[in-house]
């Protein structure tokens, strides 16, 4: 029984490794944009190059994003995963905007 639980736990633990490896190997992009709003707990809407984009926000960055006023000029750094999903790395409020 212990070995079955250990096997399940190990498989669960390692299941995230592929995501991390893929996400870490993706190139990063930094662009100016407009923070629109938080759409749900782990996603924000940002206007980049005139197009509204959904960006997945890691848990460590959620409070920082939620504290920004809507329609704030920002500089956003993100990775584009092979699935096309954008994942936030960093977002800074633009000065003088």
TrEMBL record:
Keywords: Signal. Residues 1-20 form the signal peptide. The keyword Signal applies. The keyword Signal applies. This is Lipoprotein. It comes from Bacillus nakamurai.
């Amino acid at each position: 029984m212990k070995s079955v639980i250990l096997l399940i736990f190990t498989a669960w633990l390692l299941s995230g490794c592929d995501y991390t490896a893929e996400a870490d190997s993706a190139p990063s992009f930094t662009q100016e944009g407009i923070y629109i709003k938080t759409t749900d707990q782990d996603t924000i809407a940002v206007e980049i190059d005139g197009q509204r984009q959904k960006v997945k926000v890691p848990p460590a960055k959620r409070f920082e994003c939620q504290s920004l006023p809507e329609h704030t000029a920002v500089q956003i750094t993100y990775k584009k995963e092979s699935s096309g999903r954008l994942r936030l790395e960093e977002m800074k409020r633009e000065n003088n905007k």
